[in-house]
Amino acid sequence: MVDITPMISSDRQVIDGYGEGQFCVSGRWWVGAVIVLPDRTLPWSVGPDVSALIVADFAEIVAAEPKVELLLLGTGPTMRFVPKALRQELRAAGIVVEFMDSRAVCRTYNILLAEGRRVAVAMLPV
């Protein structure tokens, strides 16, 4: 297995790992849901029900500069669908949403970051 983290600028947030109910981002452990932008990580105050998510839950991502083009939405331990209306509202804000289980998000984010993509993560704990 190849370690891609050396290809990522040292000022970027890298997802180092995850455990039950927590994520390690750039060496710091975060308990619960998090938002990861290339330049910062934030706690994400949402419940575990993805069907209850609304566009306001993504305000930090929508407002991010430079503009996020792709949002990886980690739906927890299993992949769950998010409401179509939410995907449409985020798309109207210029953000494409890909949803998958949070473990897959952890792997995918670092690869896209290494490619220089304007990517963000919002993920529920595993």
If you had to describe this structure to a student in words, what would you say it looks like?
By secondary structure, the protein is an alpha/beta fold. The chain has three helices and eight strands. The strands form two sheets. The chain has a five-stranded mixed sheet with strand order 5-4-8-6-7, sandwiched between helices. A three-stranded antiparallel sheet has the order 1-2-3, covered by helices on one side. A hairpin with a 2-residue loop joins strand 2 and strand 3. The radius of gyration is 13 Å and the shape is globular. The two termini are 23 Å apart. 28% of the residues are buried. The mean pLDDT is 92.
Write a concise synopsis of the structure shown.
By secondary structure, the protein is an alpha/beta fold.
